[in-house]
Amino acid sequence: VIIPLIYGCYLTFTDWNGISPKYNLVGLQNYVSIFTDTTFLTSIGRTFIYAFFVVIFSNVLGLLLAMLLTYGIRMQSIFRTCFFAANMVGGIVMGYIWSYIFSFALTRLGADTGWKLFETSWLTSPGTAMAALILVTVWQMSGYLMVIYVAGLTNVSADILEAATIDGASRWQLFRQIKLPLIRSSVTICTFMAISRAFMSFDVNLSLTSGGPYKSTELMAFKIYQTAFSNFKYGKGQAQALVLFVIVAVISLIQVSVSKKKEEN
C-alpha cells in the first residue's frame, strides 16, 4: 500500500501517458492544470451533490429498515437477507440491470399507464440521470447500512426500553431519547462508509450513465478514469486522484471527529 502510494505521488509530477517507458518531470504543472480545468472542478461540485444525497438517503433508509426489522415482525430475518442482497450485486452488473429498467421496463410502464414521469428514460435527461444514479446507489447501499444499524439496535438494553415505556415514553421518544443516542457508534460507522463509498463511486457511474448525458453525471472517480486511461494523461489523472484522496480523507476525519464527540457527550 505504502510503496504504490508514494510512487503515485511521484507520478503526479510527471507527464507520463501510462504507456511510454519514458516521461519527463513537469513539477506542479499537473496540479495547475487540474485546478484551471473547469470540467474537473465541475465534477468535484457534482460529486459533492451526489455524495450529500446518497449519504443522507442511504442512512435514513437503512435506519428505517433496521427499525422495522427489529420490532419482531414475522420473517424479519428473511427480509433482512433480501434487503442486504442488493449490496451483493456487483456495481457493473447492477448498473446494466438498472439501465435496462430505466430504458425499457419503466418506459413501458409509462406508456401503458400514461404517467409522464416514466414516459421517457430517466437516463436521457441531465437532471433525471443524476437522480437515477443517486436512486440506484441508495438502493444498493441502504441494505448494507441496515445490517450495521440492526446490530446497534439489537444491543440496546431491553430493560432500559421497558423502564422508559413504563414511565410513559412514546415510540418516538424511545427512538429519539434512548435508541438514537445509544447507537451513535453505528451512526458514525455508517456515515463514514457512506461518505467514502459515495465519493469513490465509479462502477455504477460507468455502467449506468457513462458520465452522460452531456457529462452531466461525470463524477470525480469517472473523470479520473477518463483522464488517465482514455486521454492517456496518467500524470494528470494521478494528480486528480490524489486530490480526491485528500478530499475524502479530510471530510472523513472531520465527520468521525465530530461524531466521536457526540458519542462522548
Outline the secondary-structure elements.
Elements: H1 2-11, H2 29-35, H3 38-68, H4 76-88, H5 91-113, H6 126-154, H7 158-166, H8 171-182, H9 184-199, H10 203-209, H11 220-230, H12 234-264
Helix pairs in contact: 2-12, 3-6, 3-9, 4-6, 5-10, 6-9, 6-10, 7-8, 9-12, 11-12
Please describe what this structure looks like.
With 265 residues, this protein is mainly alpha-helical. Helices cover 75% and strands 0% of the residues. The chain is built from twelve helices and no strands. The chain has helices spanning 2-11, 29-35, 38-68, 76-88, 91-113, 126-154, 158-166, 171-182, 184-199, 203-209, 220-230, 234-264. Helix 6 packs antiparallel against helix 10. The radius of gyration is 22 Å and the shape is globular. It starts with a helix and ends with a helix. The model has no long low-confidence stretch (mean pLDDT 91).
Features:
265 residues; single chain; mainly alpha; 0% strand
